[in-house]
Amino acid sequence: MPTKKLFGLELKRPTIQSSEYPAIARKNSSTTAAVTELQRPSMEHFKRPSIAGLGKKHASQDKHDKQSKERSQSKHKDAPRTTPGRMKPVKLGMIMESPPILFLGGPQEATGAIISGRLQVSPSAGDVVMNSIVMYLECTTTTTRPVEARCRECMSNVTDLFEWNFFTKPKTFRATEGTQELPFSHLIPGHLPAVTHGQIGTIDYSLHVRAKSSDGQETELRRELIIQRALRPGNDKNSVRIFPPTNLSLHVTLPSVIHPIGEFPITCRMTGVTNKRDDTQTRWRLRKLTWRIEEKETMVSPACAKHAGKVGGEGKGVQHTHEREIGLDELKAGWKTDFSDGQIEGEFMAAINSAAKPQCGVDAPNGLKISHILVIELVIAEEWAPNKKPNQATPTGAARVLRTQFTLHVTERAGMGISWDDEMPPAYEDVPASPPHYQNEHTTIRDYSGEDIQGDMEQLSLEN
Length: 464
Hints:
Elements: E1 4-6, E2 9-11, H1 22-39, H2 61-73, E3 90-96, E4 101-104, E5 113-123, E6 128-143, H3 152-155, E7 156-165, E8 171-173, E9 180-188, E10 196-197, E11 201-213, E12 218-225, E13 227-230, E14 237-243, E15 248-254, E16 263-271, E17 274-276, E18 280-302, E19 317-331, E20 335-338, E21 343-351, E22 362-363, E23 369-386, E24 394-408, H4 420-423
Parallel strand pairs: 4-13
Antiparallel strand pairs: 1-2, 3-5, 5-9, 6-7, 6-8, 6-11, 10-11, 11-12, 14-15, 15-16, 16-21, 17-18, 18-19, 18-23, 20-21, 22-23, 23-24
Pfam families: LDB19
Domain LDB19 N-terminal: 140-310
Protein name: LDB19 N-terminal domain-containing protein
């Protein structure tokens, strides 16, 4: 270690030995091990089980598991498929020709959406022979509360929904031909859940391309696929709530669907406010109205085969629930009170806070469910007044809090609400049958020489 001189004296920094300070040595070694573990996570047991109700069955399950494991590992930067510094044989690109995917209607009635595009393949340097180019439509489900916190298999599940094999035998891509395009299309079924990014669970879709050359090099491309669902708006919903032991009734009118962005009107009318006697009357006055929109999310975290013993066996999971407020407001005015008719009515605007990143309602077969409710709280105070002078009211000191809730359907905007199958021209098999053939497959023309045709032509008319 280099030394320094100060006023002619040699100064040297003392060295701390592990034997003298064992606690410091142990602390430094544990910190280093933790950093190494974060930088180099284990991927040996990474496996991707399928989601129930989605995907297709492969002929060879072992081969499918091996391919799924390789494609899953390729999503992480710590598992490269090619040697660093070596140029990939081809460059992949993708052009989508179809509009954004939007399912119209619920899972039971939606007809799905068609995707179409072109896969672009460009040789990097010279001619290249490609053994295979395969593209997968993948659905990835992730939970933030897995059964085992450090297990990737418990945290994320990937399912192959469809597979494109662009050619079955090796094909040569010549550099002189430039970029070549491979078209693809598919009808995505309408029962699939939409893309959802909840607080404890997410659902994503992607197009995953794998190209393998004759010398064993692989090139991959991933493109995110956004799938949304929109419910067509219908008639407004009218609901009535009764609050015993009082005679109060609340009539609320809500729209059938609401959207994450934008306001929606709520109409309220309360009846039974006034209770008249011979000389006096008691009535309820509305002091404050509070509304809030709550989002409830439920997610079932499945356990992998390695950690199935924690939940009681394979095929089981742990259910988690998360609730939060995505809209809130308090009103102290804005309604009309008519004690003579005994009712209070008013209309106000409610909206979801877009900064909270709200999610649309979803009910997926993998256990992810998101629902929304509207909670209305009314604070009323009792008053006493004589019938001859109803304006001279005296508070009695009694007050109540009326609370009720309504189900909301949060969905994307449907636009014109026309599905793809309604816009298509009729197919060949949809054309109705032609008129029957004439006798002997030919027609004849005969001259008509009746006397009635020789008369006045202007008097001829068609009669039913």
